[in-house]
Amino acid sequence: MKLIDIYARLKSDIQIIEKELEKSITSEHRLLHDASLHLLKAGGKRLRPVFVLLAGEFGHYDIDQLKYVAVPLELIHMASLVHDDVIDNADTRRGKLTVKSKWDNRIAMYTGDYIFAKALHMATELKNPLIHQILSKAMVQMSIGEMEQIRFFYNTEQRIYDYLLRIRRKTALLIAVSCQLGAIASGLGHAEMRMLYAYGYNVGMAFQIRDDVLDICGTEKELGKPPGSDIRQGNITLPVIYALQNESARSSLLDEIQKISENAKRQDIRTFIDILKETDGLQKAEELSSRYIDKAIAALDDLPKSKTKKNLIDIAYFVGNRSH
Amino acid sequence: MKLIDIYARLKSDIQIIEKELEKSITSEHRLLHDASLHLLKAGGKRLRPVFVLLAGEFGHYDIDQLKYVAVPLELIHMASLVHDDVIDNADTRRGKLTVKSKWDNRIAMYTGDYIFAKALHMATELKNPLIHQILSKAMVQMSIGEMEQIRFFYNTEQRIYDYLLRIRRKTALLIAVSCQLGAIASGLGHAEMRMLYAYGYNVGMAFQIRDDVLDICGTEKELGKPPGSDIRQGNITLPVIYALQNESARSSLLDEIQKISENAKRQDIRTFIDILKETDGLQKAEELSSRYIDKAIAALDDLPKSKTKKNLIDIAYFVGNRSH
């Protein structure tokens, strides 16, 4: 089954979630409302809600319960994207902070805060404290992950372990928690919950690695932004860490990263990407991503054979091979 | 009883809260840990925890329950201060965004996110969903209040109502919620909870109005920062709104605000403050603050006479007259 068919199968409940998302960010405050709605309308795969729904299908599926975790999870994801943009926004104005860009940044920050708070507020519709505990813990880890990313900017001495720990916090945990909360909100037992959590965690790791690979080898058209945005930001990803292990390429890569860190204009990164592509960095990253996909699928072994299980496996394969 | 005596009376439990605060922001992440701890050590009056404890004294006082609302409330307050500083930080560097200042800003933003998340996570120790609902709702309102402040920057047409709604969200609600959650966590009934909430709300309104008065008429020594920081940021406060209602002063005040908005250097605001002081703006603001104090004290009327009630009244009077 293709991804589009899975979405078609879940269509009516995804629409319910879409409406709840819109309702949740409705605010008497015009600017907040517009900023949040703009973000919402920009779309997205709604991957976290889909994982909630699919996990929920293994238990007592009730959309009126599941929506109270699906919507907060998507909101938390959205809020983290807004905060990611806060400083980048000023950056595009060549480092000059005008009053206008200053306001934009503050507005982005408070829009993020607002969406975070709305997410948690909506989750309180469910009276199970475990759910609030898991959600707030995921948010703690995500903010640590963001800080880690900043701390390791342009750090070419970082280990693969540093990278993995970072993407675990930044990306994989929230996807794991999506599966976990779908399980809890549909009354599944501890064993099934653990399996679904493990599935989500491994899919999330693979997803982020693939994302980082695509940022290097995708085209501008596929990505919707010029390739190499990670390295321009200073974010050293897995293919780069692997490539730096090649003795022949290491010193020229270090030179290029040094240049990029000093002046990250668009044309500066071409040489970097060319050198990188000649190493086995991308391939090794893809291999690790595939191993996570295998682990994700293996985590489902003891769950009953069903349409839902098949869907989760298909999504895992999609994540492993997605070209954009 | 002076404020210092109230703190002395609550000393041992304030120390417990202080330790829990420190414990709560302890992180395996060094940078986050240092940034949060620095903030914590900078001190503060811990006003929100004190209100929690005092409200709790009307019910079944249990510090092991109360600390799980007192600490989150102080953390939410701290996180909002960090986010307030995010852009100001860049500002002090004369609008030029260096790589260093960019990182500082991102770190401030994620430190705030981290502290918010830690606050909510700690509150989940209490299994009462009403508490999480009240906390997250307060956070929603606070972020709207911050946005409102930005929207009204340099807006000289704003009404007193706009100002009051803004400080209600930014300041008064969290203080009201401190009293309310202290009441809930000590098992008080709905009636007492409402009274304590009303007390906190009115004290919070008075507190913010006094703060805005002091920002204009306080000295640098008293304030720990040069006076007039509100107007330099573009924040038009109650004394200014009242002053603008004076026909004789209005046009010269508008001129000065225009100049400040274009170039908010330190010396530029002296004339503004001088003109303002000649109007009845400060006095009228003080009068409104006093009315809120009266309402705060009246809200306690039906609570039993006790040392605690006396303390709350003393705090209200202190807030009404504080000189710094």
Descriptive notes:
- Chains A, B: Belongs to the FPP/GGPP synthase family.
- Chains A, B: This is Heptaprenyl diphosphate synthase component II.
- Chains A, B: It comes from Marinicrinis lubricantis.
- Chains A, B: Its cofactor is Mg(2+).
- Two copies of one chain form a homodimer.
- Chain A is mainly α.
- Chain A has a single domain (3-321), classed as Orthogonal Bundle (Farnesyl Diphosphate Synthase).
- Chain A has helices at residues 3-9, 11-25, 30-41, 47-56, 63-91, 99-123, 129-151, 160-185, 190-217, 220-223, 229-233, 238-244, 247-262, 269-278, 281-299, 307-321.
- The first copy, chain A, is globular, with a radius of gyration of 20 Å.
- Mean pLDDT of chain A is 89; it is low at 89-100.
- At the A-B interface, helix 5, helix 6 and helix 7 of A face helix 5, helix 6 and helix 7 of B.
Q: How many runs of DSSP E, i.e. beta strands of chain A?
A: 0
User: What is the number of helices of chain A?
Assistant: 16
Tell me the major beta sheet of chain A. none
Determine the N-to-C terminus distance of chain A.
18 Å
Helix/sheet category of chain A: mainly alpha
CATH fold assignment of chain A: Farnesyl Diphosphate Synthase
CATH class of chain A: Mainly Alpha
What string, H for helix and E for strand, traces the elements of chain A in order? HHHHHHHHHHHHHHHH
The multimeric state of the shown protein is homodimer
Taking pLDDT < 50 over at least 5 consecutive residues as the criterion, the unreliable ranges of chain A are: 89-100
**Largest contact between chains:** A-B, 50 and 50 residues
Alpha carbon gyration radius of chain A: 20 Å
Strand content of chain A: under 5%
Name given to the CATH architecture of chain A = Orthogonal Bundle
Task: Estimate the helix proportion of chain A, in percent.
Answer: over 70%
Corresponding CATH superfamily of chain A: Farnesyl Diphosphate Synthase
The global form of chain A is globular
How would you state the average pLDDT of chain A, rounded? 89
Q: Please give the domain count of chain A.
A: 1
